[in-house]
Task: structure prediction
Amino acid sequence: MDNSFNVGYLLEMLIPVLGICSVLNKKKYPLIRGAACVCLGLLLDVAMTGVLMLFGYEGADYSDITPSTYIILLFWFMAIWIAVIFGIYFATEVNFHEAIYLFAISYCIEHIFYCIRELFDYCTDGRIPDNQPILYTGCLIGSFIMAYFWFAKSTVVDGKYLIETLSATSATVVILLVVWFLSIISSFNNIGHIHAVYAILASLFILINQRAQLINEKERRAFRIKEQLWKDTQVRYQFSKDAMAVVNQHYHDMKHQINALANMESDEKRRGILSEMENDIAIYDAVVRTGNDLLDTVLTEKKLICHSKEIRMSCMADGEQLKFMDEIDLYTLLGNALDNAIEANEKILDRAKRWISVQIQNKKGIVLVEIINPYTGTIKMQHGLPITSKSDKLSHGYGTQSIKAIVEKYDGNLTIKTENDKYLLRIIFSE
Result:
């Protein structure tokens, strides 16, 4: 059996796998883990090839296959497949059934280009064989382009494919096994060119169907996030109304207090009312002026909320620096970031230790947004973002994701750090 054929098949499988998996979140040392599985595949390949040769199978021409070597040939294919599946599983952050699914998708792509080479061989009467270097290289490049640019880039979300059901995986694998089985049978009967046509169509059907399902799931998730953000916005709007109601109430109270002062003769009572007025006036310290009306609204709203929760909030903000942002994006970005900071402060029992620092400034042509607040407990991070500790993960955890999405929309850079019981959110926009 030609060793180049064996290595070639493993290479043909690995190229689309690289395209499919390059967009996924990786485990530690993915190259080492993946290379170890490839080496395992090569060892299994050599071992199964030796067994096949013992049974008299000497080449890649399926026409000389015998019933005694058919099962062994099946195990030879399975050895390669298992090595590739384990390579996906150990190198990327997927579970085992997702690894099988991604292998099936990769096999689909590999099989399309294998069939294209078979058709070239048949249509040219062997003048352009399926292993002709230019054709072979072109098909390898084509398989990567299809896997990465057509499939992976359009379906991945935050380094993950949204594979929701096991049935999708099962159906895809079963169809591909049928296609593979028919491929062997057709090759055995010298009708590989007929198989190539329907195999391409079947593989394309699977790929188009699965791509559409993943894109639909991606869009459904985006809709759920927008729906959740809309609910959050309604809640914040109610907070804003409540805060303004407090301000209006203090305004009316102060009017009555001033009238009372004008007609009051007792110094002791006058001092008492002045003290009350001083406390009321403190509310108006929450009004923020940054040069950006929308930013003023967001910061004032959050500062009023902080006042009601005994959280000290300091702002040093140049609102002009964020005027390039859409109003909704700016409101969502700062609103979510400050809501997270307020929520973290509420968990701190010692109210004297509650504080939030906000800085928005231009440093040498770079717009810097920093929000720092204390926190208590443990914050778990994944891929640079905090993981929500709430049990209802569907309804929570979108705040930071929306911040990340908005920052990326404006080609910014988001950094989140937790050090010395301080939570730092830093956003950098380049002019």
In short: Residues 3-221 form one domain. Residues 1-5, 391-397 have pLDDT under 50 and may be disordered. The CA atoms of residues 89 and 99 lie 5 Å apart. The longest helix spans residues 192-262.
